Sequence to fold (212 residues):
Amino acid sequence: MKRMSILFGLAITLILTLPLLGVRVERVIATDALAADMPSPAPGEVGVSTKPNAATLSKGAAPNPPANVDKKTAVGSGKFSVNTANPKDDGDSLWIEEIDIDSDGNVETAAFLYDDEDKVTYIYANKDFTCTDGGAGKGGIMIVVYNKGNIYKKPVGSGWYAYTLDEGECGAKEEAVWGCEFDAKGNATACGLAAIVEDKDDITIVGEEIEK
Ligand SMILES: [Ca+2]
Ligand SMILES: [Ca+2]
Ligand SMILES: [Ca+2]
Ligand SMILES: [Ca+2]
Fold:
């Protein structure tokens, strides 16, 4: 009798546990929930609080280059430019979209570049932004979103964004790049002073300020 009740107890435990195991199935990218959830670093630190919005990241995850657009081998401007050329590359589609990339109410003239060999979308704009400490900045923002089939096997919809900061801008002691990596849901996973790794379409956060 005692053994029966132990077996019964085990069966009940198993039945109660199964749905919990089932919860481990991850939902596929809900890009609409995106950027609103991105946490901002604490005030008083080097950084930018303006961030790309969900609509822009969704576009980046599934780009739609217009037919017959220019093919280029780089995106950005001046010092904040990234070379996207691959061996035997005939160029990457580059087009302009008028879109409010960060929900600040102003429409940006944003350059989109689709790196079709690596399956990565770049979005670049030059704009005003707000610093983490409440100050104002102005410069380039580079947004990169990994697409389906990207050669780096990064989750679709994940990526990074980065701003150029002048000396003294947004708390930067010298000219710098500051950025964040974000996951497939658009949540920032790390932010800080950063370096762009051009040949891997990636970023390295040097001085991490937030990490989850
Ligand atoms: Ca590339
Ligand atoms: Ca390319
Ligand atoms: Ca190409
Ligand atoms: Ca805007």
